[in-house]
Amino acid sequence: MTGSVVVAGAVARRIDSGGHVWALLHWVLGFRKLGWSVLFLDRLEPAPGVRESARVRAFVETMESFGLADSFSLDVGHSEEPIGLSRSAVRAKVSEADLLLNVMGYLEDAELLARARRRVFLDIDPGFGQMWHALGLCDLFQGHDAFVTVGARVGQDDCRVPTCGLTWIPTLPPVVLDHWSPATEHGSHFTSVGRWRGPWGPVDYNGERYGLRVHEFRRFADVPRTSGLDFEIALDIDPEDQRDATRLADGGWRLSDPRAVSGTPHDYRRYVQSSLAEFGVAKGMYVQARSGWVSDRTACYLASGRPAIVQDTGVGTALETGKGLLTFSTPEEAISAARTVHADWRAHARAARALAEERFDSNRVLGKLLERVAA
Question: FRET label pair with 277: which of 132, 146, 234, 246, CA 20 to 30 Å apart?
Fold first, then answer.
């Protein structure tokens, strides 16, 4: 089965975050690997000189480096022609495409949405959009025909993410394995890459506050010091959170600047592949709601033959855990998992890559998904 797909998402505005770029590129590159024709749509807010900005140059260079020079269109506003494919070419390709994959409803262009044959909403932040909708704050879902989420447990009885009356199709985040060969050398640190708070605040829903990564991570501040092992995080943290940064350092965390070690997709890949393993703390939203969220970052670690130790969001109902992929809920469980991986690293590394090949390979993930979202 081959066809054509339009993927819409926000890469240009976060082009200096290599992990975020990979999170969206894997969908684009994955469809292309399946033999599909792909167009990627993005936009930047209108601003003087935006066409000549370093951000746009970096975006274009990234698209070109992955062989997408003729497969993108970046809208920069001001009634100007987009960078990349022209507006008329975009209209034609959207009209011809078998489906439009709209990441978090990022494409809001009414004309283009109306031209699409089948509009698929891709939820990569399960819980936020659904609770905003239920609270009447915004509606990201209107006008879409199918709804896909990386929250493996959305729709199950004990998952607190509201369905909003929609049928949600669960999926794992795809990874194009060709770009993530297992690295032979590894570092000594458990690592991760993340934003301390992110763009959105906590959500108050049904009498409970659903928090962010900051609210969970504080519970694990002492894991490095207590375990006696080496931990590092490339953390995007605001200077106003200096107290938290100091607390992490006191707990034994080594803090790195994410723009220095993972600012491009290639830097990010090197950082992941030079790690011992991932240690991932999730947003409070994912944990409290039991959404079964699976991180695209974890998929990259596993594909690199790097074990992943991640906070439990209920993911055990979607993936086998215990070898290569381990979960924790308490600091004591986190320390035990880290010591287990450290003591038998090679076995866990082999299991990590095997899990990526079996469950996260883009051909498998997207092939299965296309069967479920077809009209």
Answer: 246
Specify the DSSP element, H or E, that contains 308. Answer: strand 308-311
Residues 206, 136: one domain? no
The DSSP result for 109-133, as a single string, is -HHHHHH-SSEEEEESSTTHHHHHH
Q: Which of 6, 199, 16 is nearest to 90 (CA)?
A: 6
- Tens-digit pLDDT profile for residues 107-157: 999 999 999 999 999 999 999 999 999 999 999 999 999 999 999 999 999
Closest among 61, 10, 122, 45 to 266, alpha carbons compared: 61
Return the SS3 of 61. Answer: helix
Q: Are strands 208-210 and 203-205 parallel, antiparallel or unpaired?
A: antiparallel
From residue 247, how far is each of 122, 165, 236, 258, 367 by CA, in Å?
A: 36, 42, 15, 19, 45
SS3 10: coil
pLDDT of residue 375: 58
Reported as type and span, the H/E element at residue 182 is none
Q: Are residues 158 and 227 in the same domain?
A: no
pLDDT score at 77: 87
In whole angstroms, give the CA distance from residue 170 to residue 123.
9
**28 alpha-carbon distance from chain centroid:** 13
Q: Identify whether residues 168 and 219 lie together within a single domain.
A: no
Pair 303, 162 in one domain: no
What letter does residue 356 receive in the DSSP assignment?
A: I
Task: Kindly report the pTM of this predicted structure.
Answer: 0.97
Task: Say yes or no: 147 and 199 in one domain.
Answer: no
Calpha distance 184→304 (Å, rounded): 9
- How far apart are the C-alpha atoms of 215 and 267, rounded to whole Å? 28
232 shares its domain with 262: yes
Residue 141, domain extent = 4-174+361-373
Q: CB of 127 within 8 A of CB of 210? A: yes
| CB-count burial class (<10 Å; 0-12, 13-18, 19+) for 178 | exposed
The mean pLDDT values, 10 residues at a time, for the chain of 375 residues are 94 97 98 98 93 96 98 90 96 98 97 97 98 97 98 96 98 98 88 93 97 96 98 95 97 96 96 97 98 97 98 94 98 98 97 98 97 84
> Given this model, what pLDDT does residue 374 score?
78
